[in-house]
Amino acid sequence: MLRRRKPRLLLAMLLLCNGRTVSTRELTDTLWQDAPPASARANFHSYVSTLREHLGDTLLTAAHGGYRVQVATKDLDAALFAHLVAKARTAARTGRPQEAVRGFTTALNLWRGEVLETLEMTQTLRDEAAGLRELRLSAEDELMDAYLDVREPAHLVAEFRKLVRAEPYREHRWGRLMTVLHRCGRVKEALATYQELSALLDGELGVGPCEELRALHDQIFAAADTGRDTVFPQPRWQGPQPYVSVVGREQQHAELAALTMRGGLVTITGPGGCGKSALALATAQTLAARFAHGVTVIDPATAGTMAPDTLPGPGTGRHTLVVLDDCEHQPSVAALARRLLSQPGSTVLATSRAPLRISGEVTWPLGPLPTPVADEETAATRLFVQRAAQATPGFRAGVGHQALVARICRSLDGLPLAIELAATRLRVLSLPELAERLDTGLECLLAPATGVPRRYESLTSAFVWAHDRLSTNERLLLRHLAQWEGEFSLADVETTVEFHRQSGCALQLLAGLVEQSFVQSQDTPDGRRLRLLAPVRAFVAQVAAQERVGDRWAVLRAVPASTG
Q1: How many domains does the chain fold into?
Q2: pLDDT the model gives residue 210
Q3: CB 286 within 8 A of CB 257
Q4: Does a structural domain hold residue 455?
Q5: Is the confidence at residue 429, as pLDDT, over 80?
Q6: How far apart are CA 248 and CA 369, in angstroms?
Q7: Within this chain, do residues 272 and 189 fall inside the same structural domain, yes or no?
Q8: Which of the listed residues 157, 369, 389, 470 has the most CB atoms within 10 Å of its CB?
Q9: 423 and 472 in one domain?
Q10: Is the residue at 502 inside a domain?
Q11: 493 contacts 500 by C-beta, under 8 angstroms
Q12: Residues in CB range of 521: below 8 A, 6 or more apart
């Protein structure tokens, strides 16, 4: 057992940096701060020798001008704590709150006191220990979040009050206490809790509560106006969690969040595969704490099978953000949206290729990601590199790859689904091979990929449902337009497509294709310009080829067999 202070300080520093080489200079600063004695060098090596006697040469090694201690995670409480917290965070992020609660609880139970509380620490050690303590406090905060999804609010009030008193300047905790009080129907106590925090911050720091808590207060206050003290048992997030990270949509994310907070119905429209669902779920995740009863994600196709008490409705007093995902697949979705909007506390964020055509609806178009003009980095290239690294461990986009990645993204017109599918093809193709194949066509992206939701497994699955519901004339026009590369105008269509020359026909059909997001429309100095994205052209070409094969088989079946 180490009894001398300096060797214990040295060991503490090395253990706090477990697995990382700490320079000799940093270690001597830890031992003597800024005033090392003349014998510091000799003393330091003596302390290292002392540690080696206790740890052996395997655990303590010299490396690159410093020393490193490498202790297995299971044998070092600080490392085990960090590992368990990371696993619990993953569980929480992927919609497994029960597992998250167990993980955070197990991690926090490792603590028996403050970091190195029996050791007289130097400033360097205090700084290192502060990071570990902050991780502990963050784990407690996130455990509160997980509790909201798995335990009855009434059973959380006392524990949340205790956590608030332990760290009264962590505003997140006050917000969670307000939330459980509100869910218990104790609205006045929830509002009084906010006033208590406001007085504390103003008196001690001269500031007010953060924007998030002010918004929560306003939500609870609005609920109080109904005169109801209703119990709200639903969790803060109900339904599928975001399944992918959103890349390159930072500005749209912020704009959409601000628009959604105005209330009512906001519908994200755009072509299949442009990332409507991912952006909607990411936005809802950002705003969850702004709604007293969080987020409910509904697939309109299964809404009829949901328990009635899980759907916000008139008279429930619920203040909820409802996400209606993939609305174009259900003709009755407009009625569902109207029902949800009849509850004053509900805000609806929908995704659809076309507007829902409901009074008060705000449509928010979403297009592809910007593509590189030359070989520069853009949101599209960042998405490709990130997804390629996820699909193919060890993938690195070096300097020589930048031009190839840019070329691939241009071939795909920046459509996120096409970019993600292309990245998965690196499991069997090299980067140059993939770029060359995409230069000549997108056939390699039309076959199903694995490991993704069914509706995102190929370009075909992204477009086929909506394509099958186009009218015959719309499909014929789309097939003609798919033969054009680049931009065109309404006049181009009217002068080149024979059966659409009658007055108003081309305009009406094009308007339908634009509304269904098969044709992209953009206002330019030269007037309104239209175009088909490369993935849409590839899909339409595939459908046309399949129909031609079907026609040939029909002809063969109609011709009597030769009798010889």
Answers
A1: 5
A2: 87
A3: yes
A4: no
A5: yes
A6: 7
A7: no
A8: 369
A9: no
A10: yes
A11: yes
A12: 514, 528, 529, 530
Residues 361, 253, single domain; the answer is: yes
46 domain residue, yes or no: yes
- For 528, the enclosing helix (H) or strand (E) is strand 527-531
Q: Model's pTM, two decimal places?
A: 0.55
Of 49-58, 142-151, 406-415, 467-476, which one has max mean pLDDT? 406-415
Instruction: Using the predicted structure, report yes or no on whether residue 267 has a pLDDT greater than 90.
Output: yes
Do 276 and 310 share a domain, yes or no? yes
Three-state secondary-structure class, residue 76: coil
CATH number reported for the structural domain that contains residue 176 in this entry = 1.25.40.10
Question: Is residue 344 domain-shared with residue 248, that is, in the same domain?
Answer: yes
List all residues 6 or more positions away from 83 whose beta carbon is below 8 Å from its beta carbon.
73
Query: What HEC string does 410-466 produce?
Result: HHCCCCHHHHHHHHHHHHCCCHHHHHHHHHHCCHHHCCCCCCCCHHHCCHHHHHHHH
The three-point CA angle 375-485-412 to 5° equals 40
Query: What is the rounded CA–CA span in Å between residue 427 and residue 135?
Result: 37
Strands in 66-69's sheet, in edge-to-edge order, are 22-23, 66-69, 60-63
The boundaries of the domain holding residue 545 are: 460-550
**Could you tell me if 219 and 319 are in contact, meaning their C-beta atoms sit under 8 angstroms apart?**
yes
Question: Final residue of a domain: which of 314, 330, 365?
Answer: 365
- Give a yes or no: residue 104 inside a domain: no
- Tokens standing for 478? 């789309």
CATH number at residue 491: 1.10.10.10
> Comparing 244 with 115, which gets the higher pLDDT?
115
Which burial class, exposed, middle or buried, applies to 480 when counting CB atoms under 10 A from its CB (0-12, 13-18, 19+)?
Answer: middle
Model pLDDT for residues 78-136, shown as the tens digit of each residue:
888 888 999 998 888 766 788 889 999 999 999 887 776 666 666 666 776 777 888 88
Q: Mapping DSSP to helix (H, G, I), strand (E, B) and coil, where does residue 74 land?
A: helix
